[in-house]
Design brief:
About 3% of the residues have low confidence. It is built from 32 helices and 10 strands. It has 752 residues and is α/β, with parallel strands linked by helices. The strands form 2 sheets. Strands 2-3-4-1-5 form a 5-stranded parallel beta sheet, sandwiched between helices. A 5-stranded mixed beta sheet has the order 6-7-8-9-10, with helices on both faces.
């Protein structure tokens, strides 16, 4: 039975151009109601005397997995249902690359033809005004007002003075966009032969000679220029009794990078917000709550509305489960879940939408279509799904915090003979008596879990009466046992969160240290010396890391040179033999990139071919390489993980071949234009087949590959630092791949 819940828990929302033909459902939350109400108020507002309705800036803030992207697309769907022109309701998923790539994605959705059509509307109004002033060709004026005739055709047939009219267009566009260069460039779209040069410049390319001759000399590439350009198009497509809605998802990522690289970004950002509001446009920016800390008071004053994302309630989670099963099986039902189980899942997941869906996926898979989900299953799924990192990675993160602060610590330390007296880190401070024990545990879900923490806490206090205890939870704390846990510790535990963990742990240790009794006999001069020693340890740690990083980069360079030599060797062999027959249809770049990334991330974590080649290579290091190969093969779970990778690689290659064949069939059968419903259904079937093939592959068992350093960068703390990013990369490129391929395939075929 197919699992109706996504393993990646990224909602595939229909109604946008990249998801035509898909099913859709939305559980209405308070955040969705509020954001939709703000948008509806904007769409319903009367036009002002100046011809522009009141603009607005909406900020949607939420943690990862709270449904920001789903809400963003819901707003675009709502606007698209009200606005006849599809260019006036756009959704951009920003990347962490840079502001320019987001702007280019924005322009790609607008398209050259739509921009030229909008400029042509200005031309039509000016030609109509000219004819109306002279009292000539009243019928032509009506046709121009209704956009039923091209203004250039009217100008040619009535032998009007084109150069004078285009100068008026230039002045009008310069006034509207508040930018002389854009006024010139957009006016050139009305003249044959300039389209390619103007489009290249608009999308961030260097201006061609024909543009430089017209004083368009600056490339649109720096973040402030890009933000200004986005405001220009808000002015162009908003106003004049028009409505324009732009939704930018994950804006906090690109803004953070741009802000650190250019001091002018903050002022440009304020200007962009002001321009969107003055243009009568509706701008939605989605991001993490930390985004508010990045902007200054001037920018905050220009944000009209702020909508925080809230977690799912138990009734909302139940509604989601029923809708998901209706979409998959044609019938809304709650089984194999019960109302009590749904409430338990929602509580453990903290209402986080992505966590709830992943839990549902795991629990549905556990039942295998037989029986109901039990509380014990929920706890097992929570321990598997809700712990963000392995224990080793959390310990490594904590160790970096301790080293960074120059604190003296002993890892994996026993305070007495009892097993419960083992602490993960024991910290001592020169000017304090006693010490601070840092304990780690996974999710605390039941009373026995709390009792285990109580025993460890008591063992620490029995060994050192003055000791303070900081508990780090790698997972979640169930709501019903949270008060008991606080009662044991006397403080809140530190629950691991990737973005805040370093700060949270540092604050918790400093608070614990402040509670330790001061060392009365401490010598002031000695304390100063100890503080200097602490600073020296911090500097030594930093210098050591820089040296390790330099060694790591050298290793990567050596590995790259070796791989380049191998590629050249393979190309030589290929040239000497019979070349493979080229595929009849190449995949579009965006689709091919998804497959390349998925296969690449598997290769990055295995390097089996390179490892085997080096094992058979002769040289002074042959025995050392062979020992390294054998150590990897003896690592628990390593060979099983390689088997899973082999199956995934085979499935990915076959999936790619299937999509490539689909492209060939569609283009041969339908040519260009919009995709038919039948073609979309064929693509859906290919994607569903891939999901079914890989659904029961235990991808969590790939973790031994992540625990080992990459073969090309073996050993050292720097390779340890790459573990979280490599684990995240595996999830990013493998989870929910079929939905990503579907969106990219539909988008590329629709906009060919």
């Amino acid at each position: 039975m197919r699992n109706p819940f996504s393993a990646m828990a990224v909602a595939r929302v229909a109604g946008s151009e990249d998801d035509a033909g898909g099913s859709e459902f939305t559980v209405e939350t308070d955040a969705i109601r509020r954001a939709t109400a703000h948008l509806t108020e904007y769409l319903d507002a009367p036009d002002s005397a100046a011809g522009r309705g009141p603009g607005a800036v909406l900020l949607v803030l939420g943690e990862l997995g709270t449904g920001k992207t789903h809400l963003a697309r819901q707003l675009v769907r709502t606007a698209a249902a009200r606005l006849s022109d599809p260019t006036r309701s756009l959704h951009i998923e920003a990347t962490a690359e840079n502001v320019l790539s987001t702007y280019q994605r924005f322009l790609l959705q607008l398209g050259l033809e739509r921009i030229r059509a909008r400029v042509s509307e200005f031309y039509a109004d000016i030609v109509a005004e000219q004819l109306q002033d002279t009292g000539l060709a009243g019928h032509a004026v009506d046709l121009l007002r209704r956009r039923e005739v091209e203004p250039r055709k009217v100008v040619d047939e009535l032998r009007l003075m084109e150069s004078q009219l285009l100068r008026r267009v230039h002045r009008e566009l310069s006034d509207v966009t508040e930018n002389e260069s854009f006024g010139k460039a957009l006016t050139l779209l009305l003249r044959p032969g300039f389209e390619d040069a103007v489009w290249k410049w608009l999308t961030g390319g260097e201006p061609d000679v024909i543009l430089r001759e017209r004083d368009i000399t600056t490339r649109i590439a720096a973040a402030p220029d890009v933000l200004e350009a986005m405001g220009v198009f808000a002015l162009l497509f908003g106003g004049s009794r028009r409505r324009f809605v732009l939704v930018v998802d994950e804006f906090d990522k690109i803004f953070s990078l741009a802000r650190h690289s250019d001091d002018r970004v903050m002022l440009a950002f304020q200007k962009m917000l002001e321009v969107f509001s003055n243009a009568g446009a509706f701008l939605v920016l989605c991001g993490h709550p930390d985004f508010l800390t990045m902007v200054d008071a001037g920018a905050k004053q220009r944000i009209t509305h702020t909508v925080p994302m809230t977690g799912l309630s138990a009734p909302q989670a139940r509604q989601f489960i029923e809708l998901a099963q209706r979409a998959e099986f044609g019938q809304a039902r709650l089984e194999p879940f019960t109302p009590e189980v749904v409430e338990y899942v929602t509580t453990l997941a903290g209402g986080n939408v992505r966590r709830v869906i992943r839990m549902c996926h795991t629990l549905f898979q556990m039942t295998e279509g037989r029986g109901l989900v039990t509380d014990e299953m929920v706890r097992a799924a929570a321990r598997e799904q809700l712990g963000p990192l392995s224990a080793d990675e959390v310990l490594s993160s904590a160790r970096r915090v301790l080293v960074h602060n120059g604190w003296t610590y002993q890892p994996d330390h026993y305070l007495s003979l009892g097993r419960d007296s083992r602490v993960d880190f024991w910290l001592t401070f020169a000017d304090r008596t006693g010490g601070c024990a840092v304990l780690f545990t996974d999710s605390v879900l039941t009373h026995p879990d709390v009792e285990a923490v109580r025993r460890r806490f008591a063992a620490v206090r029995q060994a050192h009466a003055d000791a303070e205890v900081v508990l780090v939870v790698n997972g979640v704390v169930a709501g019903d046992v949270a008060p008991l846990l606080r009662g044991v510790l006397g403080r809140e535990p530190v629950v691991y969160s990737g973005r805040r963990f370093a700060d949270d742990l540092q604050v918790a240790v400093q608070a614990a240290m402040s509670l330790l009794p001061a060392e009365r006999s401490a010598d002031p001069a000695g304390l100063v010396q100890q503080r200097i020693d602490q600073i020296n340890r911090q500097q030594s740690s930093l210098y050591g890391f820089i040296e390790q990083l330099a060694d790591h980069i050298d290793g990567l360079r050596t590995s790259s040179d070796r791989r380049l030599a191998e590629i050249q060797h393979q190309l030589t062999d290929l040239a000497a033999g019979t070349p493979r027959e080229a595929a009849s249809v190449e995949l579009p770049g965006s689709v091919a990139q998804l497959f390349d990334d998925a296969l690449g991330v598997l290769e990055e974590n295995t390097h089996t071919e390179l490892m085997t080649r080096e094992a058979f290579a002769r040289g002074p290091e042959a025995s050392r390489v062979l020992d390294a190969v054998q150590r990897r093969q003896r690592t628990p779970g390593y060979l099983e993980a390689l088997g899973i990778v082999a199956l995934l690689q085979q499935a990915l290659h076959t999936f790619r071949d299937g999509v490539q064949q689909w492209y060939a069939d569609v283009r041969a059968r339908e040519g260009g234009g919009e995709l038919s419903a039948g073609a979309v259904e064929e693509l859906d079937e290919i994607c569903r087949t891939y999901d079914a093939v890989v659904e029961y592959l235990p991808r969590h068992k790939l973790d031994p590959l992540v625990q080992l350093a990459p073969w090309t960068a073996r050993g050292g703390p720097v390779s340890d630092l790459s573990r979280p990013s490599r684990r995240a990369s595996l999830r990013q490129h493998l989870d929910n791949l079929s939905s990503s391929v579907r969106r990219a395939a539909v988008r590329s075929q629709t906009f060919r």
